[in-house]
């Protein structure tokens, strides 16, 4: 039904209404509506409030509108201002922001005082004076959440911390090495700090159980505690702490020899959220606490038991079978100098903790290749492994480790005297190797160093943001730390090549190597530690930091080394055989036994955002590139790999290419990536053997540069030969060479106390 039009008199009435009546929100279409009372608009309690409650809701007439226009910066909400101020790096910038206006000062003062910089004594004094003001403009003590007095530890005592006792909202308190601090000062700081989450009083020898009991009573939200070296704290007070502070996540109890099993058992049973615990040199800790920590620790991620001499295989063999439970969260395990452990313990550890990333077994002298074979089961999860002083390990164990764990970034095999060049050549195949320790591996020679140097130029394939592969080779040498002290067979020639092949090298130790006991090298060496004996000082030779590049420049420019430079495979500043070396390294990478598609590191992407390695078992190897005619015979002999050569399949050499046209004969065929563009199109291409189902072999996606073709998943296409025992055809007077791949980050498990032997590394 169509509604009828409004009566004419009503429309006329609306048209004749005054503007004020039209804007009245309570007007209606009915002319019979009563006229509002004059005082109704000013009624605060009933204005625009239909419920007629006593809570007034102001309407538009009650609001005060300012005519002035604020600049955009002043219209920002406080939350946005605080977010902007938080991105300022310097405290001086924050201070300048406080001087702009009162509003800016109120929003910046919290950030400025959140963590006051007590880095010098005069700054500490000024902070204490400000906190002691009778009528401060701001309540500064309420802003302080973090206090760190480690920088002025030698001057800290009970009196110097009393002004800080007014700060009752401190969450993190660091008092490392404050040896002048006693229970009186610490109790004053913590008794009124219920929000305390983390406390570090390491090496504060005057702290006793009084402080720990006060913390247990007043700081029940505590999550992190470091009492390393505090030998005055009793075992009973730590049990009391475990009973009160059940949110503990991180415990560092290094060198607390007074602690017994019942204290650690209390933490294991009452604190289920423990993530990290360090019991380094807790010499009275036995097997039961270790078993309990692992069994009850649902979140345990890091367990350090270095120098806990009482621990033996029982601590781990008592754990339930992996079919009952595994400890997926455990990432770091340090068993340095747990001399009673054997292969059985290592096998059990790997069985129940299959995702270990850092494993330290240094000075566990009873372990053999059987333990290394067990470690190999960690596969791609293993990033850091320390096997120093495990003298029973041989080349066979290293071979298995390299085959299975191709993501190792850090490996230390110092004092493993049974290792030879064969082990180092296999280690050179690790695509992410960043640090290698070979101290006192006296059997290795220049061949090992040549392998490390040549592997720095292993070709890698790039990918874009969507994961698609980008054609063309490039090289990323990234070996950063090499420890070769007391490898007495090394010469200057191999080290020169290593220095020039690894531009990212930041540490090179050659202590005790006769070839480097020369006065002209001393200006580039680090100063020997003061605790060394005179003999240790005489043989000390460590290059680190900027001294590495300065030493490299010296060797590359000094006239007395010109003869050695002439024998290097490529002249300084050039890359004459870099392409050929890269292809040999690529061929050696086939030795890594990797599953299809494992080239991507999805969990920890490479810094270069590239393909991790060309690890396919079907990679074609160019024999001509493996044995370039211009490599000196002496170098070829020095870098041979007789053992690895037997495991690399190589297709038969192609027939020689047709002669090039005049004018381009000067370009070498040793590396297609460095050939003349006209020559790249003239190279003869062999069609691979094609099976009835090998449809992909009909499709050639080889780029114009002459690089090996890539398959759909980015792997290099080649013949389907398996990794069986074959010999490599070699030209007379030449041999194959090893390769090392570049690396991307390394995990580090820091040692707690350095010995003179550690300094030599």
Automatic annotation (TrEMBL):
Record's keyword terms, sorted: Leucine-rich repeat, Repeat, Ubl conjugation pathway
Pfam families xrefs: DUF7885 (PF25372), F-box-like (PF12937), LRR_6 (PF13516)
Domain F-box: 73-117
Domain of life the protein comes from: Eukaryota
Biased composition annotated in UniProt, kind: Low complexity: 674-688
Annotated InterPro entries: F-box-like_dom_sf (IPR036047), F-box_dom (IPR001810), F-box_LRR-repeat (IPR050648), FBXL15_LRR (IPR057207), Leu-rich_rpt (IPR001611), Leu-rich_rpt_Cys-con_subtyp (IPR006553), LRR_dom_sf (IPR032675)
Protein name, per record: F-box domain, Skp2-like protein
Source species of the chain: Metarhizium rileyi (strain RCEF 4871)
Source lineage: Eukaryota, Fungi, Dikarya, Ascomycota, Pezizomycotina
